[in-house]
Amino acid sequence: MTARGEVPLLVWLAWDCLDQHRRSRCGKCAEAGYCPVAEAARHRIRQWRRFRHVWGRR
Fold this sequence. Notes:
2 helices
């Protein structure tokens, strides 16, 4: 478990994934811009934000 105010490692990795996708595309990126890897990272960050909101960690 992380201390109050710390960001879990998997959330840091999700942010890193999104940063990399902003710079360049990966092999799974479609021509339309959709990427399942980036979508999974966005979902993880949304879930973490929801968890922080519900449990009072802002």
